[in-house]
Amino acid sequence: MPLPDWHSPREVYRFIFRSTKRIVVFVVGVALVLLGVALIPLPGPFSIPLMLAGLAVLATEYVWAEKVLDTVKTKAKQASEVAKRSIFRRKPKDAVPTQATPEATVPDAEATDVPG
Fold first, then answer.
1. Is the pLDDT of residue 17 over 60?
2. Using CA atoms in the order 28, 31, 33, 39, what is the torsion angle rounded to 10 degrees?
3. Are 47 and 34 contacting, i.e. CB atoms less than 8 angstroms apart?
4. Cα–Cα separations (whole angstroms), residue 24 to 31, 52, 74, 106
5. DSSP secondary-structure letter at 57?
6. How far apart, in whole angstroms, are the C-alpha atoms of residue 70 and residue 32?
7. DSSP H helical segments within 60-101, as ranges?
8. Tens of pLDDT along 37-49?
9. How far is CA 112 from CA 25, 62, 101, 109, in A?
10. Taking 90 as the threshold, does the pLDDT of residue 31 lie above it?
11. pTM, full prediction
């Protein structure tokens, strides 16, 4: 009876390390994304960076997360460009500030007289 084909200890250790790493990456990435989603109702910008960090962690092991992260990056760049263009296109309401004349600041004596 032939013996079963065993893997070398190096292959077993490599498999255990790779599997453990993948599980840890999955748990940490999903935890960050879920924490970011949970923080959405709270004030402050804490939810978006946590979700992006979770996607970045997941992208180290999963292709789908890398694609989602790339899509988010391109959309963020597009939004940034649109915001920059709209800021630089704005023109001030009055290029030269108007100064109040002394006549306009002093009330007219006739206008304030109340007949009585």
1. yes
2. -140
3. no
4. 10, 17, 28, 75
5. H
6. 18
7. 63-89
8. 999 888 878 888 9
9. 77, 78, 19, 5
10. yes
11. 0.61
How many angstroms separate the CA atoms of 52 and 110, rounded? Answer: 68
Report the b/e string of 56-94 with b at 16+ CB within 10 A: ebbbebbeebeeebeeeeeeeeeeeeeeeeeeeeeeeee
Burial label, 99 (beta-carbon count in 10 A; 0-12, 13-18, 19+) = exposed
Cα 65 to Cα 21, 30, 40: the distances in Å are 16, 11, 20
The per-residue pLDDT for 94 is 56
Q: Determine how many CB atoms are found less than 10 A away from the CB of residue 50.
A: 20
